[in-house]
Predict the 3D structure of the following.
Amino acid sequence: MSAEFLWYIPNQVHPGHRGDDAVEDHNSLATLAGHAEALERHGWGGALIGTGWGRPDTFTVATALAARTTTFQPLIAIRPGYWRPANFASAAATLDHLSGGRVLVNIVSGKDNLAAYGDSEGDQAHRYARTKEFIRLVRRLWTEENVTFHGEHFQVTDATVTPRPVVRGERRHPRLYFGGASEAAERVAATEADVQLFWGEPLDGVRERVERLTELGEKLGREHAPLEFGLRITTLVRDTTEQAWADAEAKVAKMAGGEGRFAADPNRFTAVGQQRLFDLAARGDVLDDNLYTAPGRFGGGGAGTTWLVGSAEDVAKSLRRYQELGVTHFVLSDTPYLSEIERQGERLLPLLRD
């Protein structure tokens, strides 16, 4: 299977996300579309667009960017509870139809300000049971007609989504990405997701999780095509190894001094996957060849917790080692976002595609 390389577009209320140099119109249509258009020019497949209450609506941003591009694939992060399954299935199928089959979906079950939009959920078991039901129902609505479903969390009666998602080759509907490292999350991924996304863990951690999820899918009776795997990570690429490490250390020093918008995620200590990343610092500032863990002590978590640092050749070598473990989907990023789209598109992507 050929690898997929996506970027990240920061749909944020405030400028300067993770040290970006964006100006005050950072979340205007012109600026965001400029990112999407640059991704097309420089060989990227598309970009993840994050979700959460208190930021621009992800689906609206994705729709606008799809309308301004021709090959750009929006990886649209969405939350069960913010959306009901039938409403989302219809909206996504419509955008997929209008864009010629370019929609990708990232199901997010992490904490959010649920009360702000009238949602509520119970403990972790309840949350992931609802997510599992959501994914199952959305997939059925995309692939079946006259769907009737009466579950614990969602119900539909005689529901048919029109227009239908684009069917092309083995593609029956938009690919469903999923994250999470808890036992409950992995059981959902193993049976329901198309792609399991990992944060930037060392190779030994990713190897262990690939093996466990593959075995878990077999044990639980997975009914879909084999689960695929992806990596979401920051890649700091410079002309030389020495320059990359000098810039990485200088950037962390600025973060430690409180410069730039590296706001702490209030839920960063509640997610199992995030805690796994924070725990890496105890093993050293640099793991494997060039996985830098120091940023996690000062950043907001997620993809900013660990960085792959080096020349384009160094970083390409590391990413190929993840590919050897079965990772075929990559969501990369660094700031400034727009200039790094060009730099890494011209210097890193050709090495990965070779």
